[in-house]
Amino acid sequence: MELDALKAAVIDALEDIKAKDIQVLDVSKLSPLWDALIVASGDSNRQVKALANNVAVKMKELGVEVLSTEGEKYGEWVLVDLGNVVVHVMQPAVRQYYSLEQLWGGQKPVSTPR
């Protein structure tokens, strides 16, 4: 799947379960492993798990391989690895603490949800 279509599909899956503050970061110049990181927040561990699960399910339905998921047990931060796109779904306090947007170059997001 084309990168822009994949990012849009992930955003749709996150919006289906009411993710908050969805940010898309272009990390293609910072890492040879990924082209984009998508970061979103959920209000509770249950919502974080549901958001990540919905992304995985929707991507599989579209024929996108989900390489791995991490963090489902506790639901504070769940990562979904889609190859060239990695999705981080976090509770707000965890997201603020780790500040991935700043960690990945202090950049402003290159695109936001529609």
UniProtKB/TrEMBL annotation:
Location(s) in or outside the cell: Cytoplasm
SUPFAM superfamilies (alphabetical): Nucleotidyltransferase
UniProt keyword Cytoplasm, yes or no: yes
Signal sequence segment: none
Keywords, comma-separated and alphabetical: Cytoplasm, Repressor, Translation regulation
Family annotation (Gene3D superfamilies): Beta Polymerase, domain 2
Pfam families in the cross-refs: RsfS
HAMAP family: Iojap_RsfS (MF_01477)
Function: Functions as a ribosomal silencing factor. Interacts with ribosomal protein uL14 (rplN), blocking formation of intersubunit bridge B8. Prevents association of the 30S and 50S ribosomal subunits and the formation of functional ribosomes, thus repressing translation.
Subunit structure comment from the entry: Interacts with ribosomal protein uL14 (rplN).
Family: Belongs to the Iojap/RsfS family.
Protein name: Ribosomal silencing factor RsfS
Species whose genome carries this gene: Leeia speluncae
